[in-house]
Design a protein that fits this description.
The complex is a heterodimer.
Chain A lengths: L1 H31 L6 H21 L4 H28 L7 H23 L4 E2 L9 E4 L2 E4 H23 L1 H11 L1 H6 L4 H27 L1 E2 L3 H16 L4 H21 L5 H15 L14
Antiparallel strand pairs in A: 1-4, 2-3
Helix pairs in contact in A: 1-5, 1-8, 1-9, 1-10, 2-3, 2-4, 2-8, 2-9, 3-8, 5-6, 5-8, 6-8, 9-10, 10-11
Chain B lengths: L7 H24 L2 H26 L8 H17 L4 H23 L4 H21 L16 E2 L2 E2 L3 H23 L2 H11 L1 H6 L4 H27 L9 H14 L4 H17 L7 H15 L44 E10 L2 E11 L4 E5 L6 H8 L7 E6 L2 E2 L5 H7 L1 E3 L12 H8 L8 H6 L2 H20 L15 H13 L5 E5 L7 H16 L3 E5 L3 H7 L2 E6 L2 E6 L1 H6 L1 H8 L6 H5 L4
Parallel strand pairs in B: 5-10, 5-11, 8-9, 9-10
Antiparallel strand pairs in B: 1-2, 3-4, 3-6, 6-7, 11-12
Helix pairs in contact in B: 1-6, 2-6, 2-7, 2-9, 2-10, 2-11, 3-4, 3-5, 3-9, 4-9, 6-9, 7-9, 7-15, 10-11, 15-18
The chains are: A mainly alpha, B alpha/beta.
Chain lengths: ~300, ~600
């Protein structure tokens, strides 16, 4: 029992990182029908940005809490702006072209970010300063829960709920939802479509960066290729939840995290991705629109 | 207006270009060092893979992110059979093909009903499953893979040197190129393109979409497996690292960068995706970064790919083609031979369809006699299109019975309904926009063509005869609808009225007993409407029963033998135009009293 709870706790922690990245996939897919292959790499850039800021802030002997806060905020802002820049330069001109051509530029952006990071930070692993985070924790149903784990989980949930409220209750959020239904109609209603798309990328990029900083701190090691696996799993999470659906991405992320943790714990870590993908395929075969996705009715 | 005939420069390229490229490819190893020959083999391997994936992505429009899985299955099959069972390379090829085809069916069958973006993640997952399985199993050699695969040999000649392997690769590419082109220029290839353009329209004009998609998947798998077999024998060692997700993405890049559904495009794409990073080697760590930027810029400049497929074709019935096809069919050949039988051509009884709490169609029944023109009218929301959708199997019915010539059509899929003899057009035009006019009509003939998949692959005499006959009938239908001149145009280039008529030609090409026209006159000007009325009468005179929905009372009352009136999902009147115009309830509900002018009556908002 306690082992199971321990897997669950670890899975939920990782899952909340997945969920933050999955949100970006799902929002961007929801409004421009693009599987943004570069999104996992934005997560990686976020991790490096956080690492960079912590390095400078540590040199200035700032308190640890300030270091971390600065790292998080600056990384979120920087990656958000980067995502906007990418959208403006590489995606916007192709929004009216075939959906596959924009997919290829997304792959190009992904490759450029990975290799750009490799050129800037090297091909090896970079590490956050050791012992920057407290190791304290508490017992919960026989499982060891780190204070850091809890804090990261809470922060992720706060960000997710914040995003949900933003999308549901602000004018920009309403415009985003309108766009996801019918871009032309939204434009005719006077919505600045380009602007709303840019804001979506800003939000998606910031959330990915937050996830990257947390993941970097959690595992302490970061590498220019870390966005690849994250992208794969977060995309899977978004589809599992029903792509285009915001609560779906959150639940999907947590589920993938838990599933992976249980599979690694009870079966073998070598097979964990096989199990995750097998579950995904089974879910899609029996519920083709994902867990929360709605059936799209086609008009003749 | 651009001339339909290709320019002289273009026809020179299409005629002699392939030979020039082949000569260059043959001469390539003689002019470069061994390193570049190796790069050349890499390009050829990716050309094979690209040609295979092109059928899946470029033709059928199915996004596959795990194509390397089939490449892996082919490679592991050959590697295991040669090392464990000491079979020769050539003897392993059938197994490589069969195993990858089987894998294609296993992944494809349960998942091809999914929307394409979901299919993308399923294929991605499948690709990863295959790679991880190969990494973790014992008999596949784990992460180290399999060593000591013998090089291919033929009549005692060992394909050992770089140059000989290059020529073997070239032979494989030519083989794959030949058969993928055969498939592309067949009934199956056209059906794939129509699915890419508009899946539900394709199903509704008679293409069995799931089966046709599965074939795209299986052929993609077969050519991927073949490339894998070659790869294993050439390298003599394979490991799971060669079959990553990144490889799948590289193959996808070959197709999209080159130009979807374009054969020269795929070959060029392979050269760019494999060759360019090699050329950039002098840039060292900047190499892939520069390549990535180049990729983005290229895509921004040419979103359709470097060498996009031509969607405008030479008019196959134009003056330049005279004699090739044989004399045109007389229009009389289009007449339906009377298929006897007593009773109604179409009988609908007790039809009911609910959407959530709304009953869109409630206990509707009517009969259409053979050879008549029947109109269904009623205000917006009366359930007219829903009736059509129920009859044609596009939407499920909750209750009721539909009989065509006395045979039940219930619970059939749209393509089966077309095959049974009932075809339709759509309220919003749904042509295959990026296909030519005549190809649109040829897709409409799918249900009646008999060429099997094997016929399509090797272009048997039977297949060629059928293609010629189909083209002749296609020409006749286009002439019948007044579109022969525009046969080579891209469908989306046609004027609005011509697009409507092309939809009718496409539906007629299925040789229906009954033709359903959903608001054929919508958006037409008065003179176009006049000619449409003439066309509808001529269709009826061919022996085809016509059922149409329209809001234009002049057209409906002028052309119909019989009118059915719906209101809020129920039938409220049924009779001749005179009876309908005199019917109190109909007049009260829509036709209006004298104080309304004719224009208002004639133009219900649509």
């Amino acid at each position: 029992m306690s082992v199971f709870v321990q897997y669950l706790v670890n899975g939920l922690t990782i899952g909340s990182f997945y969920a933050l990245v999955a949100l970006g996939y799902t929002m961007i897919y929801g409004i421009i029908r693009l599987i943004n292959f570069a999104h996992g790499d934005l997560f990686m850039v976020g991790a490096f940005a956080g690492w960079f800021v912590v390095g400078i802030a540590a040199g200035m002997h700032l308190p640890v809490a300030v270091q971390l806060l600065l790292a998080l905020l600056i990384a979120m802002l920087a990656v958000g702006l980067l995502a906007m820049g990418i959208e403006r330069v590489a995606y916007q001109p192709l929004l009216k072209a075939s959906r596959l051509s924009i997919l290829i530029t997304a792959l190009g952006v992904s490759l450029a970010l990975e290799n750009g990071a490799m050129i800037a930070f090297g091909a090896g692993f970079d590490t956050f300063p050791p012992n920057i985070l407290p190791l304290s924790g508490f017992q919960f149903l026989g499982a060891q829960v780190g204070d850091v784990q809890l804090a990261m989980f809470v922060l992720s949930v706060v960000l997710m709920v914040g995003l949900y409220l933003f999308v549901q209750y602000t004018p920009v959020g309403t415009a985003m939802r309108a766009l996801s239904f019918d871009q032309d109609a939204a434009r005719l209603m006077g919505i600045n479509v380009e602007g709303v798309v840019l804001i979506t990328f800003l939000l998606g990029g910031s959330l990915a960066a937050a996830s990257g900083v947390m993941m970097g701190l959690y595992y302490t090691q970061i590498n220019f290729m870390m966005g690849f696996l994250m992208g794969l799993r977060a995309f899977t999470a978004a589809v599992l939840g029903g792509i285009g659906n915001i609560p779906g991405a959150m639940v999907g992320g947590l589920l993938i995290g838990v599933l992976q943790s249980l599979a690694a714990g009870y079966i073998s870590s070598q097979w964990q991705d096989v199990i995750v993908f097998a579950v995904l395929i089974l879910v899609l075969v029996f519920k083709p629109t994902g867990i929360f996705g709605e059936r799209v009715v086609e008009r003749m | 207006m651009v001339a339909t005939r290709l320019g002289p420069a273009q026809s020179l390229i299409t005629r002699y270009g392939p030979f020039v490229v082949l000569l260059l490819a043959l001469a390539f190893p003689l002019g470069v060092n061994a390193y570049w020959v190796t790069v050349g083999i890499g390009i050829l391997t990716f050309a094979m893979l690209g040609l295979g994936l092109n059928l899946v992505v470029g033709y059928a429009g199915l996004l596959d992110l795990g194509y390397a899985a089939f490449y892996a299955i082919g490679a592991y099959t050959t590697a295991l059979l040669t090392t464990v069972f000491h079979m020769s390379f050539w003897a392993t090829l059938p197994f490589a093909v069969i195993f990858s085809a089987l894998a294609g069916v296993i992944v494809g069958y349960p998942t091809l009903r999914l929307r394409s973006d979901y299919l993308a993640i399923v294929t991605l997952g499948f690709g990863e499953i295959v790679r991880i399985t190969a990494t973790n199993l014992g008999f596949t050699g784990g992460p180290n893979g399999i060593y000591g695969i013998p090089s291919p040999s033929l009549f005692g000649f060992q394909f050992f040197s770089q140059n000989s392997q290059y020529y073997l690769a070239l032979a494989f590419v030519l083989f794959v190129l030949f058969f993928t082109r055969q498939l592309a220029h067949s009934r199956l290839g056209r059906a794939w393109l129509s699915l890419r353009e508009d899946e539900s329209a394709s199903e509704a004009v008679g293409v069995p979409s799931v089966r046709v998609k599965l074939w795209a998947y299986v052929f993609g798998a077969i050519f991927g497996g073949l490339a894998g077999a070659f790869f294993a024998a050439r390298l003599t060692a394979i490991s799971p690292d060669s079959f990553t997700y990144t490889q799948s993405i590289n193959i996808l890049m070959v197709v999209v960068l080159g130009g979807m559904a374009s054969f020269p495009g795929v070959l060029l794409g392979a050269a760019v995706v494999i060759g360019l990073p090699e050329m950039l080697r002098f840039m060292q760590i900047w190499r892939l970064f520069v390549f990535a930027i180049g990729l983005i810029v290229l895509m921004l400049l040419r979103p359709q790919g470097i060498w996009p497929a031509a969607s405008r074709k030479e008019n196959p019935f134009g003056p330049g083609q005279a004699g090739k096809l044989g004399p045109p069919l007389p229009l009389d050949a289009l007449r339906r031979e009377e298929t006897g039988g007593e009773g109604a051509a179409l009988r609908v009884t007790g039809l009911r369809r609910r959407f959530g709490g709304v009953t869109a169609v409630d206990d509707v029944g009517f009969e259409v006699r053979r050879g008549e023109i029947c109109s269904i009218i009623g205000p917006n929301g009366a359930g007219k299109t829903t009736v059509f959708n129920c009859i044609t199997g596009v939407t499920r019915t909750d209750a009721g019975d539909v009989q065509l010539d006395g045979r039940g059509l219930n619970r059939r899929q749209p393509h089966q309904v077309v095959a049974a003899g009932l075809s339709r057009t759509f309220q919003g035009i749904r042509l295959f926009k990026n296909m030519s006019v005549y190809e649109n009509v040829l897709v409409g003939m799918y249900p009646h063509q008999r060429a099997s998949v094997l016929d399509s692959l090797i272009h048997t005499g039977r297949q060629r005869r059928e293609e010629r006959e189909s083209l002749l009938r296609c020409q006749a239908w286009l002439r019948f609808c007044g579109l022969e001149e525009q046969a080579g145009h891209r469908a989306s280039e046609l004027s609005y009225g011509d697009q409507r008529r092309l939809e009718i030609a496409r539906a007629l090409a299925a040789q229906p007993k009954v033709l359903l026209l959903d608001e054929p006159a919508a958006g037409m000007n008065p003179s176009e409407k006049q000619s449409l009325m003439g066309l509808v009468r001529r269709i009826r005179d061919l022996g085809v029963t016509v059922v149409l929905i329209d809001h234009d009372m002049n057209l409906v009352m002028g052309v119909s033998d019989h009118v059915v009136v719906l209101d809020r999902g129920r039938k409220i009147a049924d009779g001749t135009p005179q009876e309908i115009q005199a019917d109190e309830r109909v007049v009260d509900a829509y036709l209006g009293r004298d104080e309304q002018t004719d224009e208002e009556v004639g133009a219900w908002p649509s």
